[in-house]
Amino acid sequence: MMIDAAIAYRRRGFSVIPIKPKGKKPLVAWESYQNDPASEETIRKWFASWPDANVAVVTGQISDVVVIDLDSEEAKAKIKALVPDYDLSAVPRVRTGRGGYHLFFKYPGVGVQTRAGVLPKTDIRADGGYVVTAPSVHESGKTYAWEVSISSELPKLPVEIFKLISSSANSTGYRERFNTPQALNGVPEGERDSTLFRLACKLRSADVPHDIAQTLLLEAAKNCDPPFSESVALEKVSRAYSRYNPNGNGTRPQSEKQPDFRLQFLSMKELLHLPPDPTRWLWDQTLPAAGASVLVSKPKIGKSTFAANLALAIARGIPFLGRNTQQSPVAYLSLYASLPEMIEAFSPFGPREMDPIFIHAGAAPKEAVAEIMQWVKANEARFIIVDTLQRLFRFQNVNDYSEVSNGLEPLTEAAREQKCHVMFLHHAKKDAGDDLDSAIGSTAIRGLAYSYLHMKRLPNSERRILRSDQRGGKNISEMAIGFDRVTGWLEIQGTMEDAEVESVEPGIFEFVEAEGGDVSEKAIKGAMQPVRAMIISKAIRKLFKDGRLERTGKGRKGSPFLYSMAISLDSIPGLGGMGGRGTGIESEKTEKTLTEPEKFYSQEIGKRTGIERNRIQIAIRSGIESDPWESAQEYHEPK
Question: Which of 120, 118, 140 lies closest to 190, judged by CA?
């Protein structure tokens, strides 16, 4: 099976990527795997999603391999003539699907770039390249196969071959002159791909206008035997014109406008047969790998705390709030906090030196978008956090749809092209009623975001309520989130209803205490309006179950339950109430003899209001003296 071969290559030390079935085009953004090989787990996910995919080895330093790609028997003969005293028959080699050979040598330890045409029909696959290999299937239906397998250490490059591939293209003496008329007249199968790209590069070097180059490539593709894909031919023109200057020196253009791509339409049949992409989600079903999101809340609710924990999860590739993440380096732009404050923001989650998170603390530069994307590309980061949106773009009128759209689109579009995700942290209106329409400013902010996440805090509750509204994936319905007491990381802690119940408890305490006890549920509900009656009923029963309220009565007409404060030690946290006996106390108002220390504790607690007492209980239970959501960054958010 292809997956078995892929895993075997990975264990051999090669960096492996999946390739389109019967093709040569990667199914993933493969550039990052030139520096960091995919894990076995990632490879298994790829080939579980694409069982018919071909397999390729990323060449160069990452895999410690250089591959000599020989497209014909003539090319093989020329290599033999170059090293007449070297036994090439013992070199590990793959017979390609078109009848050529891939010779596998050990990487020499110095930079070797992937190059085409170092000899007739001879290419070098090293840094910056990859080779489709056995047991992949060629478009002709033929299979790549090992003729001489890798038994141990790869052989070193012969000196003559090393000199050939490490010298400049103009000094080898072997490079064939490119036959432009022959390329325009079409070439046979097996030569089409490389010849058409070289033709596109030739036209670029000669400074032929982009549209004329497209016409010539389409004509050359049509003349091939069999005809070559027009869409792929146009891609080669675009790649050559975006990658190189029109001076023949192989350098990239610095300030030249990128060529426009032609529209490429897929039929519904083609669309439905596209394989699922396991790399689509950075945070499964929530944040796409290419796109933008916005996290909205009022100040001091914990946006930065949430973002810091999510950043660590993605940097390590571990699940977050029950959904998997795709491992990636992370760029965090905190545009108002200092570096010490950022350390405080991350420290609760146990950051490690090897975590690939990179932080900018301070004001944004004038050309921030260009600098961000340049850094992201150089460091292959796929997740960017901007804290906050207004600090980056400094909109004169954040309610102006046109201004906001024109400001956001360059970064969001660049993120899509670079296949990375940018999350903006943004403030909610102070008097916002609807969570999903609470962001300060124009509706363009929500409109440009693939995922809109909202977080809020209920009164008197340590938990936050998180929900999302997305174009795709799976919406997060209202869930309560809080801190795991063991790991310190955020976790799901029930539903919004659970948090509502928790938030209403202090008010019930305060009312029952003010009334002096023997209070009916009906009276409590009347005092707690406009809170929903169902929430109040559940809170009362929970308080009774936890031993924090006592009750008398039969719970029926004529003898309703009447509730009073539980002041015995059995109701004190850790001594029979929260975490102790864990059940309610049916009271007949009998007196209990207390020891002197017990009397003192009860008297001191009794001096507190219901809200203060509940906070003391929470502090004793959790060991938290301050709100852990309030990271250092949140203190500086504008009111």
Answer: 140
Q: Which of 113-122, 438-447, 473-482, 602-611 has the highest mean pLDDT?
A: 473-482
Pick the closest to residue 364 from 403, 341, 331, 398 (CA basis).
Answer: 331
133 C-beta neighbours (distance < 10 Å), count: 24
Residue type, 540: I
| pTM of this structure | 0.50
Residues 6+ apart with CB under 8 A from 156: 105, 106, 108
The mean pLDDT value for 323-342 works out to 90
The predicted model gives 358-386 an average pLDDT of 86
Over its C-alpha atoms, the chain yields an Rg (Å, rounded) of: 33
pLDDT band per the 50, 70, 90 thresholds, residue 346: very high
In the structure, what pLDDT confidence band is assigned to residue 167 with cuts at 50, 70 and 90? low
**Amino acid (one-letter) located at 521:** E
CA distance 467 to 480: 9
Please name which of 475, 473, 412 lies closest in space to residue 447, comparing C-alpha atoms.
Answer: 412
For 633, other C-beta atoms within 10 Å of its C-beta total 25
The secondary structure element, H or E, covering residue 272 is helix 268-272
pLDDT above 60 (res 575): no
Task: Calculate the CA dihedral of residues 58, 63, 65, 67 and round it to 10 degrees.
Answer: -10
Is the predicted pLDDT of residue 72 greater than 60, yes or no?
Answer: yes
Spatial separation of the C-alpha atoms in residues 62 and 33, rounded to whole Å:
8
* Residue that has been written with the tokens 């033709």 in this structure: 199
Q: Which residues are registered as beta bridge partners of 132?
A: 56
Q: What is the DSSP letter of 491?
A: E
**How would you list the strands of the sheet with 562-565, edge to edge?**
519-520, 562-565, 549-552, 585-586
> What is the arithmetic mean of pLDDT over 533-553?
88
Tokens of 370: 């260009």
Cβ–Cβ under 8 Å, residues 441 and 428:
no
What does the block give as tokens for 10? 């990975």
Residue whose structure tokens are 């930079």: 111
Q: What are the tokens at 115?
A: 């190059």
323, 286 Cβ separation under 8 angstroms:
yes
Residues 329 and 314 sit within 8 Å (Cβ to Cβ): no
- Among positive and negative, which fits the CA dihedral 306, 310, 311, 316? positive
**Which DSSP state fits 535?**
H
